């Protein structure tokens, strides 16, 4: 469902225009208050279009990041799909017994690799995904393998590179981050994918690339190419592994000496000695293992937060900064306490270096180095944040209409009676149109939404908007497409307002973004 054709609805949104103009004139930071979640995708797409800057959207949780990425994607051109950067902080808690979320590691590596190569202009991330320290872009940029039909390859070299990427060699692939080789067939389960791929060779040439079912082993869906990214965030080199092993040995011996001097239980001391020696041996042998991400500061002394992957000319969006702070501090505290407790019990070597950049430090860095827009539904700010310009949009969350068609029809009728323009976007357009017909609510072509609004007809004038005396109405929108589920649909009401309105139900239920008659202070509900 692509809704880029609705972006011109904000042409008369004066508050947004003030914010954009301030950014164009060089203001470093703008705070926009009164933005409900349902309106943020629309607003962010307008900011992306109007500023023509790469966009980094930082929000407070994985769920909110996924929602913003999905909503924003509906309003951007099809070739500008937002890149979702996940956090892999939970990998620091993994060990050999619990296993590890290879899929999360792979998705993060795929995103970081794309950013390092400058391939995306719109990025959405959970705040911990940005704060979490990661290897520098130069260490990540070349860490991927792209295989295409017709390529001439050496399977032994491909297998060696996959091993260096942290993939495990198996008899049959079942989980992301594994591969299997049988003659001229290479099965790979990409670390960032839900489906494995089968690469068939004729001699040294790739003859076909297909997805396949790991249960039935039947292949399907041909592909022209496949890109494979690492299964671990840390970069594999024998030199860096050897250095990390040496550093770990030194820190462990100091810790053991401290424990013995303090009279710690012999069992704890021996448990730590054994755990450290196992990790030191595997690092020295350049072997990946569960929990290796805990040693990222040793493997990459130049590690920094993911903000270094973002272009200097990007526009940084801080979505609900107060919630960002509380979520970041909570998530990092959970991991740090867990690791500290395990180190105290001697289960793992102590983690001495910080694994994340501090929230306040990162926000200040972002605002000092790049233009920033802060979004907040309520007037809550951080004590160390002082935006150059503060604009209030006076919005409020709208009622949810999912599963409540009668309530939707009542709301549409109310909007019409109050001379408000409304655009309804739904994957169930025929049902919405039926509700409108039952209430005799008019609709009009979508193209009427683009460009200047037509004049409001006077009561009693001939035409589609004349039925209710006393209310001048101009029907504004109709359907974006017909018949196919999932295609964008719009049904509309009317308005004399010259400022923007848009609403959507998408997958989560009905929500609205509307403007009243006055264009000076658009209301969002």
Task: Report a brief summary of the structure.
This protein has 525 residues and is an alpha/beta fold.
Helix-strand blueprint:
Blueprint: H1 14-24, E1 29-33, H2 37-51, E2 55-59, H3 62-75, E3 83-85, H4 102-116, E4 122-126, H5 127-131, E5 133-134, H6 137-140, E6 145-148, H7 155-164, E7 168-169, E8 178-182, E9 185-189, E10 197-202, E11 205-212, E12 219-223, E13 225-228, H8 238-261, H9 266-284, H10 296-299, E14 304-305, E15 315-319, H11 321-344, H12 359-369, E16 372-376, E17 389-392, H13 405-417, E18 423-425, H14 429-438, E19 490-492, E20 502-504, E21 511-513
Parallel strand pairs: 1-16, 1-17, 2-4, 2-15, 3-4, 7-8, 15-16
Antiparallel strand pairs: 5-14, 6-13, 8-9, 9-10, 10-11, 11-12, 18-19, 20-21
Helix pairs in contact: 1-2, 2-3, 8-9
Description:
This protein has 525 residues and is α/β, with parallel strands linked by helices. It is built from 14 helices and 21 strands. It has helices at 14-24, 37-51, 62-75, 102-116, 127-131, 137-140, 155-164, 238-261, 266-284, 296-299, 321-344, 359-369, 405-417, 429-438, and strands at residues 29-33, 55-59, 83-85, 122-126, 133-134, 145-148, 168-169, 178-182, 185-189, 197-202, 205-212, 219-223, 225-228, 304-305, 315-319, 372-376, 389-392, 423-425, 490-492, 502-504, 511-513. The strands form 6 sheets. Strands 3-4-2-15-16-1-17 form a 7-stranded parallel β-sheet, with helices on both faces. A 6-stranded mixed β-sheet has the order 7-8-9-10-11-12, with helices on one face. A hairpin with a 2-residue loop joins strand 10 and strand 11 (205-212). It starts with 13 loop residues before the first helix and ends in a 12-residue tail after the last strand.
